[in-house]
């Protein structure tokens, strides 16, 4: 039987934790799964838990041999000096992405989940799959970057290309440019990468300009929508709708693989985009519609960034699953028929959270002050939209 949607969670992916003060925290997965369960939207039977790790050949689809060896060696190397040299060489000695014991296993578990999700959709076992631990879009073939060690998104896409020869549209709505995935397929005409993010003028990784359009046969299959800092919901959604609809119409993919970083929220400590929960309701709804219109429903969704782990991430990622499963709660939240988050969830996590938890699924609009320069920002984003779609 073909199911509509599966939820993938590899238990070893919760080991992907740099240290206690690091913003990338796997408790995000626990909080989201618990919220969905308390909302009666996810059962243990719906959660697929892979009990294996992909082998090294799968990592090698994207990563260099010496890099994978280094990540593994860092687990067993005892001499602190050799360890430091190795970590330095491969981007694992930085403040952002420091090496920790068990890194190879945890990062491999994340890749496993994303490949499993891709396989489930491409083999026809399910129409949609969600792997919330995935979406580590900054990792490079030979180095770690921006909290990302193995690029599960690029590996899953390469696996789809090799095994199914399908045309893949990668859609990245994380507030940071999806650079690692873009560069993986920059010269590939069969993989189209699309990223909408805060402009690299002010934010890591400093790339993702509209003029980055691919090279050689891949020219014209790379799209970037760099938004102004302090962009709000209306302009964000307009920029997304105007551009992604043109892109998908032109590229005609066989499958959509989406990255759901939720760090464009006004509460997020690492960026300057000023959106609310509204975009995290709309993004999955738009992608879901596009999948059923263009790819016979084939849609693989991954997690990504999101650093207000208590107030934003659990609500935002829950929306992906509610939408994907056509759960009535998605519509009820949209229609304001259901406002409050499950009481048991709030009760369980309130004392652990350093900030007061929101009571409702949607943001209270008074909690996010309007931006005075809204018109100028909207105008600037419209200029960007027209540049992005000028050849389509
Ligand atoms: Zn991000
Ligand atoms: Zn569907």
TrEMBL record:
Residues 22-322 form the Histone deacetylase domain. Coiled coil: none annotated. InterPro entries: AcuC, HDACs, His_deacetylse_dom, His_deacetylse_dom_sf, Ureohydrolase_dom_sf. Pathway: Ketone degradation; acetoin degradation. Signal peptide: none annotated. Keywords: Acetoin catabolism. It comes from the Bacteria. The keyword Cytoplasm does not apply. The keyword Cytoplasm does not apply. Transmembrane segments: none annotated. GO terms for molecular function: histone deacetylase activity. GO terms for biological process: acetoin catabolic process; epigenetic regulation of gene expression. PANTHER family: HISTONE DEACETYLASE HDAC1, HISTONE DEACETYLASE HDAC1-RELATED. Belongs to the histone deacetylase family. This is Acetoin utilization protein AcuC.
